[in-house]
């Protein structure tokens, strides 16, 4: 399977100490250079910056071959490059959280999931304690409606 990720899912999985879910669920994740740049940026949370110092073997950084696309004017660099790379690679799945970016990705025929979908899948595989993971996620800057969090919890608890 070809899995491409934007910054957000990786960022929040690092912050809630669940980054090891990605290789357990997907074996390899491909990110564009812009996503790596966002993760390692001095404005990124310190645990995220530190994590990028030793890039794990399951994370592959791949540049996009079509650097110009109209979505570059609509989204941040990581989101736009992740969508473009997912299209170039004919990815099976794109990990993406931002609502505007998700809408554009869907319009382009991409299959997407975000951090909540990752936690859902990990819970189904009995890899995490969902209430703890959700509480940890709520303690970050990640935003989702309380009803969305509750829907996920109700599904498994």
From TrEMBL:
Pfam family of the protein (one): DUF3368
Origin superkingdom: Bacteria
InterPro entries, per the entry: PIN-like_prokaryotic
PANTHER family reported for this sequence: SLL0658 PROTEIN
This protein's name: DUF3368 domain-containing protein
Organism: Okeanomitos corallinicola TIOX110
Lineage, top ranks: Bacteria, Bacillati, Cyanobacteriota, Cyanophyceae, Nostocales
């Amino acid at each position: 399977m070809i899995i491409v990720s934007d910054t957000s899912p990786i960022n929040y999985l690092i912050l809630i100490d669940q980054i090891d879910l990605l290789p357990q669920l997907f074996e390899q994740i491909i990110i564009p250079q812009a996503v790596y740049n966002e993760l390692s940026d001095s404005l990124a949370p310190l645990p995220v910056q530190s994590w990028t110092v030793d890039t794990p073997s399951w994370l592959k950084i791949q540049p996009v071959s079509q650097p110009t696309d109209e979505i570059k004017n609509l989204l941040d660099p990581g989101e736009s490059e992740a969508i473009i790379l997912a299209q170039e690679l004919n990815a099976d799945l794109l990990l993406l959280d931002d609502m505007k970016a998700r809408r554009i990705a869907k319009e382009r025929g991409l299959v997407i999931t975000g951090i909540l979908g990752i936690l859902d899948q990990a819970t189904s595989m009995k890899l995490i304690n969902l209430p703890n993971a959700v509480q940890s996620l709520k303690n970050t800057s990640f935003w989702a409606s309380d009803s969305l969090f509750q829907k996920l919890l109700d599904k498994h608890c």
